[in-house]
Amino acid sequence: MMDIFYNLTPITQALIATLFTWGMTALGAALVFATKTINQRLLDSMLGFAGGVMIAASYWSLLSPAIEMSADNAIGSWFPAAFGFLLGGVFLWGIDKILPHLHPNSPIGAAEGYHPRERKRSTLLVLAITLHNIPEGLAVGIAFGALANGGTEASLAGALTLALGIGIQNFPEGVAVSMPLRGEGMSRRKSFLYGQFSGMVEPIAAVIGAFAVAFVEPLLPYALSFAAGAMIFVVAEEVIPGSQEKGNKDLASMSLMIGFVVMMILDVALG
């Protein structure tokens, strides 16, 4: 099975991998068929765990390879990683200011973006999760796109590990959208559809990322660090605050550390 996957084009590999991560979002959203509410402490711990996975993936799967690839850079091996990282954060900051969205656990009055109060709460919640699924999809796509530039089985394993880690942390994201909507009286079916819809952007972003770096090799270290910067912006601006808004700061913080360690082990052991 792995031999067949290895022989596929990087763009196809990225598409398949992000269909898995989208499926994990749908799996989390499917909890609405089992229960109407979820314990707030559990939800906050899941969000904290997701943040830890994203932070670890940003370094081991994206920044570290970007620095290694830039050993011959005229300015220094640090430059592509630093430039791309900051550019990724600025890019997400710009989208955050434009795209109307509402972070999980937040009241409707805290909605952000352009004219957010003209939209339904359900739409704002979906857009919030969609916002940070963009860099996640890009990260997976770029990791697989790198295989077109002399990738090995080891780099394939690293890309698969990144997709696995993002898939794991997508589970609570699906929960974070569908359960609040169900708690507000929306039907199970509609809550599920809204919850899983937020992950739909990942395959699209992955194909874009894989296509870009597969054919423009010099962009690769910049693209990897760009995805890392975008992910860290999302963690700092949304995931961590969202996991602590209800007062479960210690629980969310410890869960973040556990998520970080889990992703670190996956990347070092499998990647």
Automatic annotation (TrEMBL):
Transmembrane segment boundaries: 12-34, 46-63, 75-95, 124-148, 154-171, 192-216, 222-240, 252-270
UniProt key word Cytoplasm: no
Pfam families: Zip
Membrane topology: Multi-pass membrane protein
Domain of life according to the entry: Bacteria
Protein localization: Cell membrane
InterPro entries: ZIP (IPR003689)
Keywords from the UniProt entry: Cell membrane, Membrane, Transmembrane, Transmembrane helix, Zinc
Major localization listed first in the record, in broad terms: membrane
Recorded family membership: Belongs to the ZIP transporter (TC 2.A.5) family.
Name under which the protein is recorded: ZIP family zinc transporter
Taxonomic lineage from the root: Bacteria, Bacillati, Bacillota, Bacilli, Bacillales
